[in-house]
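Today's session is about reading a structure prediction critically. Students often jump straight to the picture, but the first step is always the sequence itself: look for stretches that repeat, for charged clusters, for runs of hydrophobic residues. Only then move on to the predicted structure, which in these notes is written as discrete structure tokens rather than atom positions. Here is the chain we will use throughout the hour.
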Amino acid sequence: MRVTASAPGKVILVGEHFVVENEPAVALAINLRALVTVEDNEGSDVFYSKNLGAFVEVKEGRVLKGAGDGFEVLRPLVKIADILRQYSSVKKPFKLTVNSSIPPASGMGSSAAVSVAACAALSRFFNLDIGLDDISKIAYEAEKIVHGKPSGIDNTISTYAGAIIYRKSEGFIRLDIQIDSAAVIIADSGIPRRTGEMVKQVRDLKKRYPEVLDPLYHAAGHLSIEAARALEEGDLWKLGELMNINHGLLSAIGVSNMKLEELVYTARRAGALGAKITGAGGGGCIIAIAYKKKADNIARALKKVASRVYVLEATRKGVSIDEVVS
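Below is the predicted structure for this chain, in token form.
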């Protein structure tokens, strides 16, 4: 048997970092996807990432061998397999292969998309009938291994796609967005970063200066609500302005750097309505929103200073089973 599933990446339009402390954030699924294939294997379970050149072989909970970053990189997927296998009568070994178009450590939800796609593929392989809520929850358990204390927004948007406004204590609401005229331009700084480390850095700063940062967090929450309204109203100019304000808040909490600032201001000068850090910051990517007719001009400008540039669109296709071969 062979099962292939896929799930989309994401960008945070507004609200990253602040969402960890229970303020709302808005996320948008993008048309870059992670593919995971699970197929029959002999003797043991094998987990392999084409993108990272890592593999690990596991049998009855024991690591037999690995290469690349091996077990550390693939441990979230081992966790997902362990969880699902508990509920299945199917005990046969498998080979799991990851092939993702979402760059890792870029703020585009690579690890969550891989976990969501792996959960969908493994559940079908194990003949389990689980819903989207279960896929998202299991992927969240895997995200804990990667990020320590994740917000939950990455696995949620990768599972359901479209756009959501998310609050940790309340879950998420799907948004009826009107942005068909918008291009989503993403520029990669070329600087890798680890989300867990950046989240800890910001939380430590907040602990040191709570009376200063509490109002800032509160303002960021209101900003996310206004941005959600702008998406539903199709008001791209308002959305862009709010994104610019949000970038200033992220700079204030110490997650920007000179390279990210260069990318943000290059995009704005080239015609973007709004541009900001997306994700944890310290590296990774910036996101710009623009009318489609401006996208090529913005991309050309960014290619002069970015390691990679993507001109993308929002997607309403969430996690899916793409192929099943018995």
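Discussion point for the tutorial: The chain has a mean pLDDT of 93.
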